[in-house]
Design a protein that fits this description.
Helix content is about 35%, strand content about 25%. It is of the alpha+beta class. It has a 4-stranded antiparallel sheet, covered by helices on one side. It has a two-stranded antiparallel sheet with strand order 4-5.
Length: about 120
């Protein structure tokens, strides 16, 4: 049961991240991961809405950045958008491929199914 709780905490927030590189921004949410070329990003303005934790992408829906939310109550963290602006400024852009791709994070999906199955098995008995 402890392992199921640890996996639930992992999936609740610690498995999320944002990585800024010279050609892309990689957003890893719980069940999906996006790689967005920097040329597709709409500039972030934290002065507009300090609690906006989405990544606006030209021609595509915005991406919610789970890493900018607290783990347990999922409230937006004020520092997230400011960090993203600073990281984009600190890491100079290079030419990119102009693409946005996403993939499922199959291991996290399997872990979530295992946690749900464990709880269902324990409560069904």
């Amino acid at each position: 049961m402890f392992a199921a709780a640890a996996v639930a905490i992992y999936l609740g927030g610690t498995c999320t991240s944002v990585v800024v590189t010279s050609d892309a921004v990689v957003v890893r949410n719980i069940f999906r991961s996006w790689r967005v070329s920097r040329s597709l990003l709409v500039p972030v303005d934290p002065h507009r809405d300090v609690m906006d934790t989405t990544l606006a992408v030209k021609g595509h829906p915005s991406i919610d950045i789970s890493a900018f939310h607290t783990t347990f109550n999922h409230t937006p963290m004020r520092e997230g958008p400011w960090w993203l602006v600073k990281a984009l400024q600190d890491i100079g852009p290079l030419p990119d491929d102009g693409r946005r791709t996403w993939r499922l994070r199959w291991l996290n999906i399997a872990l979530a199914v295992a946690v749900v199955a464990t709880f269902a098995w324990n409560y069904a008995s």
